[in-house]
Amino acid sequence: xxxxxxxxxxxxxxxxxxxxxxxxxxxxxxxxxxxxxxxxxxxxxxxxxxxxxxxxxxxxxxxxxxxxxxxxxxxxxxxxxxxxxxxxxxxxxxxxxxxxxxxxxxxxxxxxxxxxxxxxxxxxxxxxxxxxxxxxxxxxxxxxxxxxxxxxxxxxxxxxxxxxxxxxxxxxxxxxxxxxxxxxxxxxxxxxxxxxxxxxxxxxxxxxxxxxxxxxxxxxxxxxxxxxxxxxxxxxxxxxxxxxxxxxxxxxxxxxxxxxxxxxxxxxxxxxxxxxxxxxxxxxxxxxxxxxxxxxxxxxxxxxxxxxxxxxxxxxxxxxxxxxxxxxxxxxxxxxxxxxxxxxxxxxxxxxxxxxxxxxxxxxxxxxxxxxxxxxxxxxxxxxxxxxxxxxxxxxxxxxxxxxxxxxxxxxxxxxxxxxxxxxxxx
Length: 427
Ligand code: C6P
Prior knowledge:
binds ligand C6P
């Protein structure tokens, strides 16, 4: 296959060891100025930025290989199919799955969880069966289970969060029991940064005979995740939070679990045969990928995985732990700031969710933006967490592999100015 290389795109292999200056050069958007100030991008939990290598791969695919996958006998279609299918192996290697056939491409974490809820659970669970979630889940891992409860009489049980945003194993033991059929749990909370002890919870669930679905949207991009060490039966995550394009996600599942799952959508490519009377299903994973898949973005996602693996997810986590330590220190000094979530950096992902006394989180977000600092303000699609904290919303700064300590200093300075601005306005 002819793959033209782009001399302007730095080689991903040269990104090891972790060289933050070189990494930042790969992300041209970080050179932007916002409101006259250098951009400080602290919203990667919502969506990460993409390096030039991923952008180049997307262009290269459309320029040199573009054609629909699985459908053509012509060269371009064969090349596109090879590139698309090749990404399954990259994902498998990233998360330690047994076979690339266990990798299903979806449109994102939300679609992956819904596929489990409506493709697996809807057909297999009924009245009295219990699905266990936690209080710190994203709406994507709450609402599908409520739909199932309302339609199928499944009982939804919730592991409560402690005041510091952690999940207590004793509380989990009181909820997970002989009627539990599925534990659907996040590995890292997007609203608090809590790192959940998934392995311990998964052991409890497995002892009860239940399956374990892990929401890896905020973990897979940031730390080594191995499905075997995690004790997961199913894992969901999104490409756009890990240097990849939007509109791509993954559902990984152990083959025997996927074999017991029904396709959610019918259409092209997911069938083996179709007559006007009946259809038979294609093999896994194609059975779950009806219609033309988002093949160009999947190919570029493969380059995002190459980038992350070249750096090493252990190095990414180390870098983020340093940022978390530093962030805890500099935010702890901001007058009137309450930081939510665990105190211990090792129990945290790179998320700082906070309240600034007397200032609405949206105003904090606006004032920070006027100083070049991009954060998210709102309920972060985790309203039960907000309710538990007794707030309507928080301001959230989140870091990734391209952020620096000095950007967190800039955040802290901007927050001090924000607090002074509102203090002066109120006096
Ligand atoms: N959280 C945030 O700003 P999608 O939107 O399907 O790619 O991912 C959904 C999702 C599921 N679980 C967790 C833990 C998440 O953080 C997210 C997305 C973004 O926190 C957008 S709300």
